[in-house]
Structure formats: structure tokens, C-alpha cells
Task: structure prediction
Amino acid sequence: MTDIQKVHCLSAEAQELYDFLKSPHIQALLSSHDSVAQVDYGPVLPPLPDEMPEDEEAMRIVCLVKNNQPLGATIRRDEDTGQIYIARVIHGGLADRSGLLHPGDLLVEVNGSPVLGLEPEQVIQILVEHHYIPG
Result:
């Protein structure tokens, strides 16, 4: 609005835009948007201890927002243990771009559902039904 006010001769479209933006409803909408956009909604996790041994395994929570795009990773099931692993991360896909999933990562749960013993097709169905993946 400040930039529009600086113009000496406003076109009809610029004047219409200015009038629209100064509407109290639009001002409230923009203010609400700015307030929501500043909040960090990610989980706050305690840091891993500094003195953790090199061979110690750590669990991390990963949150990927898919937005109707494929995950860009394949999974496999260990037939002996029933555990589900990331088999492959497809170059350029969501998982690759995020840098959060790697081949060999063990999936413990997806969207709050434990995946131990499930068939890969069942895990894929959980992924399809939801838009994010903590695990």
C-alpha cells in the first residue's frame, strides 16, 4: 500500500487495488496470515547428548509434506524381522530434496501407525492416505 501511495498518477486498476487492500477485512486477513506464518509448527525435540557413543543408534522424527507429489523413495521389508526399511531414494524426489531419508533407514511408524510386520503395500497405503510422514 505504501508503494501505491507514492505513485502520483494512479491508474484505475491501481486505485482499485489500493481500495481493496485498505479494506478492514483484507487488513485482518493479511494480519492473521502474517501471525500464522511466523509460528513454527514443527515438533520441538531435545538435542541428542554430546557424549553419545559412535556406535549408538539414534531415532529421529522426520516430517515431510507431500502435497500430492510422490515421496520419491522405495521401501522394502526384511522377511526375517518384518522391519520396513528405505530401499532407495529417487534422485530429485521429495525425499532426496529434503535430505531427511536415506537408504537403509528403518521406518518405525508412519503417521503414528507402527509399521513393524506390515507388508510394503500396507505402508504405501498409509502414505497415500496422509500428507506427511513422521517416522
Summary: Residues 2-37 form one domain. Residues 84 and 111 are 14 Å apart (CA to CA). The first strand starts at residue 73 and ends at 77.
